[in-house]
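Late entry, evening session. Most of the bench is empty. Finally got around to the prediction I had been postponing all week. Sequence below, unchanged from the version circulated by S.P.
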Amino acid sequence: MQPAADAIHSQHASIEIDASPEAVYAMVSDITRMGEWSPEAVGGRWIDGGAGNVGDWFVGENELPERSWERECQVAAAEPGRDFTFVVGGVEANCTWWSYEMEPTEAGGTKLTERWWMVNRTPAMAAAVTDAPDVYADRTGPYTAQMLQATLENLKAAAEA
């Protein structure tokens, strides 16, 4: 899923993985396993019997050395082998989006692109604009870019193991 035209921040990274788009999709759509690849997300749990379909909700669990937090997220796209996208706070709140797009490669693998974009700030991000502008700038810039790349490299290593 492409970032919205009115996104106030966005980042993306891509990597080629020697695994099928369906295998890569199975990994990224299993939110309980995200902690295996992400430097920040430690996992998640589905709410009310969700299983990864459009409209399903989950709680994403995150941790950094200085703090930990949870956010409710809603699945916005769930196309096996193509696209798994979710949004923090739900589609209606339209805050922070995370998208994993898979494209088959000529060699039989997958080009995986992870996208992150923000349309509306979550309450924590809105507070950071004035309370911690340097943290906010890093979060929307270099930190997120590095996190996306690290996640993709870790996914590649796991998929190809």
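Two things to note before I forget:
Residues 35 and 42 are 4 Å apart (CA to CA).
The chain has a mean pLDDT of 91.
Will write this up properly tomorrow.
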